[in-house]
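2024-03-11 09:14:02 INFO receiving multi-entity request
2024-03-11 09:14:02 INFO entity count = two
2024-03-11 09:14:03 INFO echoing inputs for audit
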Amino acid sequence: MVGMGAIRIMPANTSPKVPVSRAARKPAKAPGIRQTMSDLHIWTGLLAGWILYAMFLTGTASYFRDEISQWMRPDVPAQSQLADAAELAPRLIAAMEVIAPMSPQWSISLPDARNNTASAFWRGGRRFESATFDPATAQTIGVRESIGGEFFYRFHFQLHYLPVLWGRWLAGLCGMFMLVAIISGVITHKKIFIDFFTFRGGKGQRSWLDAHNALSVLGLPFHLMITYTGLVTLMLMYMPWGSNAAFKDAAQRQAMQTELSAFVRPGPPSGQKAELAPVAGMIQQAQARWGHDGVGSVNVNNPGDAAARIIVVRADDARVSASPQYMMFDGVGGQLLQIKDRVGAAAETRGVMYALHLGRFSDYPLRWLYFLVSLAGTAMVGTGLVMWTVKRRAKLPDPARPYFGFRLVERLNIAAIAGLSVAMAAFFWGNRLLPAAMADRKVWEVDLLFIVWGATLVYALLRPAKRAWVELLWLAAALLVLLPLLNGITTDRGLWHSLAAGDWLFAGFDLTLLAFGGLHALLAIRTQRHQPKARPAARKSKPAPPAAGAHIPLSHAQAAVGDPVVERV
Amino acid sequence: MGHLSVLLLSVLAFACLALAMERHQEELFARQLGPGATKGLRVAGWALLCGSSAVALRQPSWAIGLVSWFGCLSAGAGMIFVALMLAARIPKTIRPQRR
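2024-03-11 09:21:47 INFO inference complete, emitting structure
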C-alpha cells in the first residue's frame, strides 16, 4: 500500500533535480530503515503487483458472487420466496441419487436470500464434480449454463488453467508479498497523519503518490485484514507443520478437520446397501434450533450405504464466524448422533478470520462497503504499479527509447489493468452471446475471458503506450456501457423491465455496469488529455496513463494494425 | 439504519479532524483558525469517532457492527478526502481571499 514515503525519499538520493532532503545530506552510510523498507515495498509490490491486481479486482467482484451468478443465469427466475429447506432438500437428495449414486460424499447447498439456485458438489472418482439446480424443479440448470460469479471467486485464490494446488501456492506467495508490501509501506510512509487527507493535483508523481497514499491509508484496516485473513484461509496448506506435529494419527487429524469444516471426511463404507432415511424431519430439527432459514447445506457421506451419515449444516450468513456448526444424523436410522455447536478457541479464531474475509454475514449496505473499500485496494495496487513507471519516466536517459525493464513494466501494466477490465466485460458479453445450447458453454465463457485478456496484452505490446492505455480504456468503457443494452436485447430482463418490475438485483447490476463504464470513460479522457510537460502533469485516481514521452518507435505496419480499433470505439 | 448513523457520525468526525489541520484550514479559509477552535474541532472529531463506535457496537450483533464500523471509517474518511479534493478545484476567485 503505502509506498509513498518511499518514493519521496528515493529521488532525493538518486536524482539531483529533486530538492535535497535531509536524508540525502547525510554522508553516504548504510541506508536507513525507511530507505530499506521503501526498496522492499517497491520491489515486492512490483513483482507481485500484476497478479495481485487481478486477485484484488476479481476478489472485489466476488463480494457480489451470488448476484453475478444470478445475472449470468437470466433464465432462472428471481425467487419470490425462499424455498423451505425441509421441502427442498429431499427433492435435491432424490436428484443426487440419480446423478451420483456411487459417490462417497455429496455436499448440497440450499438457496438463500442472495442465491436463487441450489448447488451440489461431490466426490466423483479422484475429482470433485459439481452441478447447479433450479429449486423449482430440483433439476440441473440446462439452459445457458454458466459458472457465474463463482469464476471470479475461484480465480482470486487459485487462478486458472493451473493445477489447483499450484494456483493456490502462487496466490499465497503473492498474498505474502502483499503483506510485506503493506507493512513496509506503512513504515516507509512517515507522514500518515499529516498527509491523511492530502491530495495535490496537477503535480505528476506527487499526485500519484498522494492518490496511492490515500487509497492505502484510508482503507488500511480492510487491506491489512483482507491480506492476512486471505493467507489464513489456506494456512493449513501453506504451513502444515504445526498441525502435522501436533496431530500424529488419522483419528486426531479427523478430529481437527471437524473443527474446521462441516465437510467431514466419510468413514469407511460398510459395503451393505441401505436406503437413505427421510431428511425432512432432520431438517426440521435443525430449523427448530437455528431458525427457519438457518440451514445452509446438507452433506451426505456414504449415501446408499448402511454406514451413511447425513450432516445438516448451519448457514454462515448470520454470524461473524465460519467455524462449522452442524447436526449429524445416522443416514439410515435417522437418529441424531451429534450436535456440533462450538469449536475450540484456536479454531474459532480461524473461523472468525475466515468469515471476515468472505463477509458472508453482510447485509447489502455492509456488502457495498466491503466492495467499495476493496475496490480502493484494487486501485491502490493499480496506482502503485503505474507509479513505478511515472517515477522512472522522468529520469529516462532517452525517453524515446526506454530500457527493456521499463517497457516491460509499462506494457504489463496496460494489459494487467486496462486489459483486465476489457476481459471481464468480455466474460459477460460471452455469457449473453454464446449460443445457449453450445457444448461446454460455461468453459467457453471463461476461455473467452482469457483469450480477450491475452489479446489486450498483444495489443499493449504493439501500440504506443499512451494510445494503448486510451484505446483499451475506451474499449472497456464501451463494452461495459453497452452490456445493459445487450442484456435488454438478449433477455426479457433489461434495465427498463427490471426497474419497472422492482427487480433490484438486475437493475442494480446493470446500473453498476453503467457506472463502471463511466469510470473507464473518465480515465480514458484524462489519459487522452494528458500532455506531459517538462515536469509531468498530474493525474488522480487509479489507472492512469503513462505519459506520451514513452512511445516506442513502431513500424508503420504495426501502428496501422491497431488504428481501426480506435475508429471503432 | 444502523449503518447509516455510523457512517454519518464517521463523516462528521473526519470533517472535524480535517478542519482541525492547518493545511486544510489554509486551503478552505485562506487562514488558520485560532488555537481554541482548532482544539475544539479535534476534540469533537475524536468524540464523534468514539460515538460512532458506541453506536456500531450497540447494533443487534456487535460483531457485525464492529465490521461495519471499520467500513464506515474508511468510507467516511474517503468522503472527506474527495470533498477536500473537489473543494480545491473551485476557482480561486470565488473562494475566500486571504485578508
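2024-03-11 09:21:48 INFO post-check: Residues 1-24, 535-569 of chain A have pLDDT under 50 and may be disordered.
2024-03-11 09:21:48 INFO post-check: The longest strand of chain A covers residues 127-134.
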